[in-house]
Amino acid sequence: MGIFQHAWQAFRRAGAPAALPLAVAVTAALLIGTSDRALAQGAVKSVHKDWQIRCDTPPGAKAEQCALIQSVTAEDRANIGLTVIVLKTADQKSKLMRVVAPLGVLLPSGLGLKIDNADVGRAGFVRCLPNGCIAEVVMDDDLIKKLRSGKTSTFIIFQTPEEGIGFPMSLAGFGEGYDKLP
């Protein structure tokens, strides 16, 4: 079982369904839809090579929520985008990776992840919003280490069982940005 799958299963065992409404609300607050692409909104607090820390106060929240974010388009389809959001939970006990894929993604196939061409695993989608479908995992130390030391990651979605779409994403600045997350 890949790390991505293991982290996803740990997220589900940890009672994620109870925490999911808050997670979805924060994602909705951090994202807006533009064409077929989900773009992060909120104030840019800092830039770490290819990653940004953006902060916003979700509706009903008492404090500002910050996330490490990068948005990319598919290699061969400039009109299809994907956004990766890394954040710490309000209690600072967990680190989440939330990936917003475009609508029309084949949900049962899940979201694949490779780091430097090594398969990390798959995560299932947890919910679709008007601006995209969300896959989310609790990040364990091993996944964070791989993201820190890797050069590129590739997120893979499917629009049909045979058609995978890869989204290459630079990991330059991930470690630095992750360390600066409040």
What does the model show?
With 182 residues, the chain is α+β, with helices and mostly antiparallel strands. It has a single domain (3-180), classed as Sandwich (Immunoglobulin-like). Helix content is 23%, strand content 46%. It has helices spanning 3-13, 16-30, 141-149, 174-180, and strands at 31-34, 37-40, 43-48, 51-56, 65-73, 81-88, 95-101, 111-115, 118-123, 125-129, 132-138, 152-160, 163-170. The protein has a seven-stranded antiparallel sheet. Strands 9-8-12-13 form a four-stranded antiparallel sheet. Strand 1 and strand 2 (37-40) form a beta hairpin. The chain is globular and about 45 Å long. Mean pLDDT is 82; it is low at 1-39.
> Reading side by side through the largest sheet, how are the strands ordered?
3-4-5-6-7-11-10
Question: C-alpha Rg, in Å?
Answer: 15 Å
The SSE string, one letter per element, is HHEEEEEEEEEEEHEEH
Tell me, briefly, the overall form: globular
Tell me the structural class.
alpha+beta
Number of domains: 1
CATH topology: Immunoglobulin-like
* Poorly predicted spans: 1-39
Average pLDDT number: 82
The CATH architecture assignment turns out to be Sandwich
User: Strand tally, please?
Assistant: 13
Tally of separate helices? 4
Gap between N and C termini: 31 Å
State which percent range the strand residues make up.
Answer: over 45%
CATH class: Mainly Beta
